[in-house]
Design goal:
- This protein is α+β, with helices and mostly antiparallel strands.
- A hairpin with a 4-residue loop joins strand 15 and strand 16 (402-409).
- Helix 5 runs antiparallel to helix 6 (309-320).
- It has seven helices and 18 strands.
Length: 473
Amino acid sequence: MNDMDEIKEALGVQSKALASLLKEREDMHTKTPANSMTAPLLHGAGGLWSNPALERDVITAHIRPNGVSTVLPLLPSTVEDPRFGSITGYTAVVGSEPTTPCEDAPYGFVKGAMLTARFAMTRRDTNTIDIGHTMLQWNRGDTRDLVLRGRVLGMTNLEPAGMSEADILNVITQSEMVGAAVQAERKLSKDIWQGTIAAGTGPGFDVQIATGQKDADTGTLAPALDSDIKNFNYDMVGGTGRDIVEYLSSMMYYLQYNAEHMGLDPVSWVLVMRQELWFELSAVWPCTYLANRCKPNGSTNALVINDNVNVAMRDDMRRRMMIPINGVEYPVVTDTGIYEKTNINTAGLLAGQYASSIYAIPLTINGNYPVCYREYLDYRGASRDQALLRGTQMFWTSEGIYMWVPEYVKYCYKLSLRTEQRIILKTPQLAGKIQNIKYTPLQHLREPYPESPYFADGGVSVRGASFGQAVWG
């Protein structure tokens, strides 16, 4: 084979490779979108906001999730299967006590365990957008100067950065991207607590703050790393059964003991619970806390408080979001993503009764070293590979936390959102949970999740369009 033949063969191979790459790119960008508009129109005939009598200001009634993600640092990572080491202790000694100076003395072994973490992917898409509909106005009364009053994102630190909520009334693509972000935020806010590997959502706090901790490589149990788990057994908070002051005081005393005797103190904890439970707990805590153990020989409460101490303490707790336990004030965070038991999903609970958990989460140990935080797969690490995919328009936002990919069918397109995150808890032995605490609020709060019976929306996504009449039909 001469040089010219070799060049021809090389060019043939290259052409086939390019053709294959173009075919893959075409498939990637044309399979998913629909062949016509599926996104709700904002303006134009049938547009959601195209009524000429519409006032400029549009007020939101959308309920946003909130929770512990606001106090968890978010750090980048590209490590798929990490290890976090812990010394679990030292064994009992082996051997006999020496009777002479040069005899062997008893000895022991250090033991350790390694914990791990797992990324979980969250994906959400926009509806299909027809570029030809994005600029339409129904008539001169259909304006694009609408102003949003309120927020639809922003209480969790889980949403992509750069989402301009101000444009969701006027720009279809921005509205759809914010809509995908809303859906992703809802999912992530629940996965932080309820996520499991079996469900494909990654391990949340409910399965990490637990007993039965094990070494990541061998599966050997490591009880020194077990969390403190207590069961309130569906007793009412503030009721005549189990005492919530005793349980919370005992849990924090136990965890503080661990921190001090492991040399990890000072630890910064947050106590996390549902909003409904916090409201009921803060109502009964002052009296119960101040009167704790003031019931000699099982008699009625011997402590009489006839001034505003209880009310002032309750209001102060709610205002500053803190709770005093064992002489220490702990910050309180409420979270909508914590699983709540109701009469619908749990036998034994009556209508209007609920049960959920209170969590003690350690954020840092001595030296302000973070031991509980969120990690995300940093898509910026793929920049060299992405540079080879010229023209695909793949892009990331929020310093690599979220990846967006547009997909096309001629003039129609949609965007796909992707993020991979995980919860890191390096010190489960400093974490605790009191589960199955029952409470009966007078009124349950609205929920941000459509599957909840306390979710409310209403209205329409599409309005009827009436066109003018003409001689041609």
